[in-house]
Amino acid sequence: MGKRKRRDNYGRDNFPRAGEFYGNSYSEPAEELPKGIHHYRHVGEVPWDIQKYFHQRHSIFSRYDEGIWMTDDAWYGVTPEPVATKIAEHLSLSSPASKTILIDPFAGAGGNVIAFALSDRWEHIYAIEKDPKVLACAKNNATVYGVEDRIRWFEGDCFEVLNEGNFREFVGGKGEGEGGEGWKERSVVFGSPPWGGPGYRTDAIFNLSHMQPYNLTALIAPFRKLTKEVALYLPRTSDLRQLAKVVVVDSDEGGGGGGGGGEGEEGAKKKATVVYYCMEGASKALCVYFGGFDLEGVV
User: How many CB atoms are located within 10 Å of the residue 73 CB?
Assistant: First the structure.
């Protein structure tokens, strides 16, 4: 694997600021957006396969008309705003009090990480996205919502970024951690990984080993080395038996990571909580909470 370049080609300085390119009415663009990034205004501009998402744009981002940016692929993975807000509320209320760092390894166009920033629960929020154009969208969209200064952005594959010395030095030093690996004990990981496109909708029970490019095992193992408190946003049809097996394996192996808040007694029974999230009476997805989340009375 070649060395990944750590340059921010799509940083905010290289783009017009939110609102500048649509003037006061957001009707006629003052300047063209970079290739591959869009702010569609009319359904006739939208590729046919994402038109249904465009029709839901104000549910996805309530401030869409204020200059939200998207790539065509980003429409598939963004969490609708009401769901993202509810997840942020649940994480805020259920996380152990010692947890002050939120890591979003699949930031996408920013739906979830913006909600986390708006919750005012976290001292530090770190968002990772490997697609530079999607990352540019997330930065812009955070600006639209006024939370751009509350999020630290990283470009690259999340597993590479999390293992790089400069990320660990940044998080563990500069006053943002306790030095060394102490930051792990203060961290929660929330992941909304790619589901492999919309094909998951055809399965009555979705096999989580078929998720692409990362299956359930590939996700859980590295995240649980960082912290016990891991929440994953997954298809609503996910196979609960596979999630249960993860809990059993974790219990047998004693858990992972430096996170506190989990069961402290040897042999204590581990568990995970699954929450289904709905909009307008329809189930959209589920979130599974591993570790010391206390969701009793929260959901």
Answer: 16
φ, ψ of residue 115 to 5 degrees: the values are -65, -40
In angstroms, the first-to-last Cα distance of the chain is 43
Give the phi and the psi of residue 220 in degrees, each rounded to 5: -65, -45
Find all residues with CB under 8 Å of 259, minimum gap 6, and list them.
99, 184, 185, 187, 188, 226, 227, 228, 229, 291, 292
Helix 111-118 with 81-94: angle, nearest 10 deg: 50
**Residues 25-39 pLDDT 10s:** 444 544 589 899 999
Distance CA 25, CA 171 (A): 41
Beta-strand pair 187-191/124-129: unpaired
The pairs formed by 214-223 with CB atoms below 8 angstroms and a separation of 24 or more are 216/242, 216/243, 216/246, 219/191, 219/193, 220/246, 220/290, 221/256, 222/159, 222/162, 223/105, 223/189, 223/191, 223/257
- 41: tokens are 């205004």
> Residue 95: exposed, middle, or buried by beta-carbon count in 10 A (0-12, 13-18, 19+)?
buried
Q: How confident is the model over 76-131, as pLDDT tens digits?
A: 999 999 999 999 999 999 999 999 999 999 999 999 999 999 999 999 999 999 99
- Single-letter code of the amino acid located at 39: H
Q: Which two tokens stand for residue 142?
A: 């955070």
**Under a CB-based contact definition with an 8 Å cutoff, are residues 139 and 11 in contact?**
yes
Buried b (16+ CB within 10 A) or exposed e, 239-250: beebbeebbeeb
21 SS3 class: coil
